């Protein structure tokens, strides 16, 4: 299905279309998932805030909008104020949002997630910190092992039957995603959330078939990919977000393991890999600087021979164009830059000399001259 691909004139690779399975994206400048922690009723249902937040990017000319991490079960939420997709009311609210986004010509994706040991926490701007107790809307947390994330409660180690239920929860949420009108499904295996917790030996101390060897630690990720692909069929693009590294010199998750698992993931049915980093441990030194994660994406692309997106302190049109033109990534995802400027894609096109044919008619008077 094409989204907004027309006769715009471009010599910029950033604004060239990209096709994955049956979906054609009008450009390669995409909105990364950004948690809003804004479901005040704590029922996981998207609100007018989410419509306005995501809608602003759609009118701004992007090629794909990924929603924030959306839990596949109530206990999978990061905070009580997180989105979910495990009931009919949530699905109906997402359908309404997708209808508006599609009307602006952009493709839409949902990031399905389970927070694991990092669930049930206060939202970032709350005065309280750490794990929220039951009286504040919190719940018991689970992880691959009874190993706490620093500052959070110790999780209960998942049983094999509970792991199987989580795989089923992802499958069911994927079905709801398609029925709600999403064009892309992304599975969140990064930033220290549940699937990343299984992948990293720093948080996975299991001795059964889900722990120990790389094959075992990757098992839940591959189980989820296989279940989701079987559920949604062959036409829906399936993304996986990986943290390329824990930023730990010895004993942690790293780009070499990511490369191996990405190949396995592609064999299991994944199409595209969104490469970020960190989030599973604290007390590490992360070399935060412009484009600091791009080489992780480039490594995965060149060594695993899979399509990737780059993300992380990419803030200018020239930077984004260079990432694509140099072949280091197939798409660029931005987050904070879009918060600062929801119509960044329109401005980036102007700066790169691209004449778009999908400016919103209502905004024509603001066209760059």
From TrEMBL:
Pfam family membership, one: Oxidored_FMN
Residue ranges of domain NADH:flavin oxidoreductase/NADH oxidase N-terminal in the record: 14-352
InterPro entries found in the cross-reference section: Aldolase_TIM (IPR013785), OxRdtase_FMN_N (IPR001155), YqjM-like (IPR044152)
Transmembrane segments: none
Name the record gives this protein: Oxidoreductase
Keyword Membrane listed: no
KW Oxidoreductase (keyword) present: yes
Molecular function per GO: FMN binding; NADP binding; NADPH dehydrogenase activity
Entry keywords, A to Z: Flavoprotein, FMN, NADP, Oxidoreductase
PANTHER family on file: NADPH DEHYDROGENASE C23G7.10C-RELATED (PTHR43303:SF4)
Cofactor field: FMN
């Amino acid at each position: 299905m094409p989204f907004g691909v027309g006769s715009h004139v471009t010599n910029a690779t950033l604004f060239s279309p990209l096709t994955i399975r049956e979906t054609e994206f009008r450009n390669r400048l995409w909105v990364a998932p950004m948690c809003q922690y804004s479901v005040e009723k704590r029922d996981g249902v998207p609100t007018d805030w989410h419509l306005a937040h995501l809608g602003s990017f759609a009118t701004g000319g992007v090629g794909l909008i990924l929603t924030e991490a959306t839990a596949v079960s109530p206990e999978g939420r990061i905070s009580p104020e997180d989105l979910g997709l495990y009931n009919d009311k949530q699905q109906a609210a997402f359908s309404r949002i997708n209808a508006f986004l599609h009307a602006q010509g952009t493709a839409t994706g949902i990031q399905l997630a389970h927070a694991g040991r990092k669930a049930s926490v206060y939202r970032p701007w709350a005065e309280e910190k750490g794990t929220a107790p039951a009286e504040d809307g919190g719940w018991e947390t689970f992880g691959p092992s009874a190993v706490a994330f620093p500052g959070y409660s110790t999780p209960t180690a998942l049983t094999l039957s509970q792991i199987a239920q989580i795989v089923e929860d992802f499958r069911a949420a994927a079905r709801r995603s398609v029925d709600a009108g999403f064009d892309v499904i992304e599975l969140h295996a990064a930033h220290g959330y549940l699937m990343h917790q299984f992948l990293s030996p720093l948080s996975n101390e299991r001795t059964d078939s889900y722990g120990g060897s790389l094959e075992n630690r990757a098992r839940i990720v591959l189980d989820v990919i296989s279940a989701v692909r079987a559920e949604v069929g062959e036409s829906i693009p399936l993304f996986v977000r990986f943290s390329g590294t824990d930023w730990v010199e010895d004993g942690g998750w790293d780009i070499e393991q990511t490369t191996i698992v990405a190949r396995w993931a592609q064999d299991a049915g994944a199409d595209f890999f969104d490469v970020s980093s960190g989030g599973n441990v604290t007390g590490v030194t992360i070399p935060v600087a412009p484009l600091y994660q791009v080489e992780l994406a480039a490594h995965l692309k060149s060594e695993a021979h899979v399509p990737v997106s780059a993300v992380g302190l990419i803030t200018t049109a020239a930077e984004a164009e260079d990432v694509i033109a140099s072949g280091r990534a197939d798409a660029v995802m931005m987050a904070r830059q879009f918060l600062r400027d929801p119509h960044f894609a329109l401005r980036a096109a102007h700066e790169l000399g691209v004449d778009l044919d999908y400016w919103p008619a209502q905004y024509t008077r603001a066209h760059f001259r």
